[in-house]
Amino acid sequence: MADTRQRILEVALGLFNEQGLSRVGVRDVARATKMSPGNLAYHFATFDDLVAALVTELHEHNLRGVFTVPMERFTLVSLYSAATGAMRSMLRYRFVLHSYVDAVRASPRLLRFEATLAKRRRQRHDEMLAALVANGFVGRAALARGDVLYEQSALISSGWLTAAALRDWSDERAVRHFAKLGCALLQPHCTARGSRQMRQILAGAHDRERA
User: Fold this and answer.
1) What letter does residue 153 receive in the DSSP assignment?
2) Which of 24, 43, 168, 173 is the most exposed, fewest CB within 10 Å of its CB?
């Protein structure tokens, strides 16, 4: 059963990425998986359930494989690594960036779901910022700017792929550029220790593994 559910998610993700959320329905997913709509509904009762499952999959993937550094060892390099890792994960879920807002607006159920995820994203942001302060990379004054920093980083997260497409950039170039841009939001608040790491990040010293 788990294999069937995962196969449905894989097929739906491919259709959504190719055509967008608004052009794909449950029947399209059922047809592509060679299942009846009734059998598919056994695993995902509604279209919203299917979309929510994919967004949850992305969120959980990032928790397991991206945001893994303990907060007591968290650095600006850790932040950059987490940002690039999360953005590379999002490349596989392009429909989230391109069509997800429209889907959320059209569905009270998805709107409630997204509100829950937004709280988790904000909590993770606050934890990372607090860790950077506690570990001596960012000054305490940054905590008072938490709301602004979060909103600025959220704008980058929600718009970077579209901006890259308009510039005709490769995926990897876009990931590195906008991850650096997100990290640079903290540059005015860096301590001397943090400034050294920030210079390395912006100069590309931590990009070698993906060169």
Assistant:
1) H
2) 168
Residues 20, 28: Cα–Cα separation, whole Å = 12
Closest CA to 189 of 149, 152, 138, 143: 138
Instruction: Give tens-digit pLDDT for 4-16.
Output: 999 999 999 999 9
Tens digit of pLDDT for each residue in 38-95? 999 999 988 888 888 888 888 888 878 788 899 999 999 999 999 999 999 888 888 7
What predicted TM-score, i.e. pTM, was given to this entire model? Answer: 0.85
Q: Is 46 helix (H, G, I), strand (E, B) or coil?
A: coil
DSSP 138-166: B-THHHHTHHHHHHHHHHHHHHHHHHHHH
Rounded-to-5 percentages of helix, strand, coil across the chain? 80, 0, 20
Domain with CATH 1.10.357.10 in the chain: 56-210
Task: Please identify, in words, the CATH class of the domain defined by 1-45.
Answer: mainly alpha
- Superfamily grouping for domain 56-210: Tetracycline Repressor, domain 2 (1.10.357.10)
Which two three-digit tokens encode residue 98? Answer: 């391109």
* Rounded distance between C-alpha atoms, residue 33 and residue 8, angstroms: 7
Share of the chain above pLDDT 90, in %: 62
The Cα–Cα gap between 134 and 84 comes to 23
Kindly give the interhelix angle for 76-92 and 108-134, rounded to the nearest 10 degrees.
Answer: 160
